[in-house]
Design a protein that fits this description.
Elements: H1 3-8, H2 11-26, E1 39-45, H3 51-55, H4 66-70, H5 74-83, E2 89-92, H6 98-112, E3 117-123
Helix pairs in contact: 2-5
Length: about 120
């Protein structure tokens, strides 16, 4: 990722990338082995306090990456893209239950055969 992009990115997205990588390491799953796999990302996320100052400051200070770095919908796709995953990739916003609903949807997707592995959780 370009340094400018990282600077504009909501910390929730950075944490999602880091913690997901750590989760794969703890599960003894090599991230490079997931490229092209039917693995899914199910993320519960509902609050974006970082976007307010990032998007509503002086127009000259807004960077091209401010929109994608702060859109909640981009978070799951960013992880899927980074890992090269080909399964479902979605963000759920159901307020306080977002993480629980994301895990529920991941379980349903695994049972239905939509994906073979799921990364599921929440970011706040």
């Amino acid at each position: 990722m370009a340094p400018r992009e990282v600077t504009c990115m909501d910390p929730q997205q950075r944490l999602l990338l880091e913690v997901s990588w750590e989760a794969l390491e703890h599960a003894s799953i090599a991230p490079d082995k997931l490229v092209g796999s039917r693995s899914g990302v199910f993320l519960g996320i509902s609050v974006n306090e970082y976007a307010q100052p990032a998007l509503f400051q002086d127009a000259e200070a807004i960077d091209v990456y401010a929109a994608t770095g702060n859109a909640l919908s981009v978070a799951a796709g960013r992880l899927s893209y980074t890992l090269g995953l080909q399964g479902p990739s979605l963000v759920v916003d159901t307020a306080c239950s977002s993480s629980l609903v994301a895990v529920h949807l991941a379980c349903q997707s695994l049972r239905a055969g939509d994906c073979r592995l799921a990364i599921a959780g929440g970011a706040i």
